[in-house]
């Protein structure tokens, strides 16, 4: 359960403004209420390779093609989903916003890639999309009207009711240096879509008209430093990216871009082994290297919010060389408040 103030748009704007100024936003309350493991009796690998969540359910992919369904309303063991479709390897999974009984699957069968929507309650395939190349990262728009996935370095978008192709977002070589898309996301109102390529360049588009809104790029390409995009979230007025740089130890970073004015800011999450952000972008959850502890951080400031680590976040807060160090986590105030400006510190 998550609360930020009165949870209204004014608070969102205040939080974004605080982030631009390098200051903490409004406080967030977090409550942990779900804990389950994969039952050994299912004979399914413990490692979760892919996942997708709705308001009341979670589906996970284990091994090559095993799929489990978890209830987020009741703290009960997961059940195995029997999929009566010939496939070798699942490359993407998504739960339909219209009902957790329907999932979309991207998979490989031999050298062929396909996308199916599947009613796992009635064990029936609902639709088959045209095949493509290297299909992965499938997801529904929040309103359920569109289904999209990455194929051949671009984003293919389909209309779900008529099962027809709508658009392929494949940016020009002049704009993106020809690098393929690695992540994308819809905004919660399904009005925009954002993408990230291997270089760390971010773009935003308007859904429906498919007009181009803008782009932002780091001063140094991420792929040159071995930095990879792990997750991209598009929320009200901003795009948030979780990325990691391969090395010992790995360095994890949270980058925020405001498409409407071009501002871009980031902070590092030191001691982090993994990080992810919910669809509303209110916080970032990290798994720590020191014993696997779970921490909840404010996505505006990087401050730890869970009680067990709040004391750490209050220690050694100081400003140094225009950066703010909060509990050892580096925060860079955005220096790009002017519309159209884009910059990111080149220490990455």
From TrEMBL:
SUPFAM superfamilies: Tricorn protease domain 2 (SSF69322). It comes from Colletotrichum graminicola (strain M1.001 / M2 / FGSC 10212). Residues 7-16 have a biased composition (Acidic residues). This is WD domain-containing protein. Residues 1-22, 325-348 are annotated as: Disordered. InterPro entries: WD40/YVTN_repeat-like_dom_sf (IPR015943).
